[in-house]
Amino acid sequence: MIAADGLCKVFVRNIAKKKGMKRNSATKEEFYAVDHVSFEAKPGEILGLLGPNGAGKTTVLRMLGNLMTPTEGEVKLVDLAGDEVTSVIEKKQKIGYLSGNTKLYQRLSTRELLRVFGDIYGIDKETCETRINEIFQVLDMESFGDNRIEKLSTGQTQRANIARCLIHNPEVYIFDEPTLGLDIISIEAIVSFMKKEKEKGKTVLYSTHYMEEAQYLCDRIVMMYQGKVIAMGTPQELMEATNTDNLRDTFRSIIKEEEA
User: Is the pTM of this model over 0.70?
Assistant: First the structure.
């Protein structure tokens, strides 16, 4: 289980200059990119994080993945044995994190890349090779796993990126737009993987702009807008609350009400 407990992140931005200000002067202000966000993703659950661009989704995921320090609040992580994990290093060992702009070593094959990460995580060679072969099967990568990453298609590269997150067998997955811009075959492979990991009792937390995908895949949805959580529940609960029959219309209805 991973939980956001009152998470806040304050950034500084430039604001429009007022008349009479010196040419080179700049006015700055602090703002909440994430404003007291709380929710939890449970074992054996796929939790979707939805919201328009600028809603704060990626910032929340980075804080949950211990890549960014919260201004306020904390991240709580409980392992499958029921023990709370407090060390940042141990938290990272329990989490597989995929961001939208992760760069891979282009001159390596996916197999070579996974061996490097296996060594980083202290996995012995025999276990690592077994794990790599299992990952290639799960993500349908046998046909290109030994090709250089620079030669892979967009969908194949994304699967290589996800494979990197799996080598240490994490208990929690945090995926930021894992299927963005991919072909249907790659999407099906990634979606199938997330469902299988859920069946193993793993926790899957991911953001997406694909409402149909979220409606089909997610056990629960957290909707964010302007740094805040504005709705939370199962897809069915959210649709019933807004008298809609699809998650896209549900989202529009909730945003419209929030703006009003």
Answer: yes
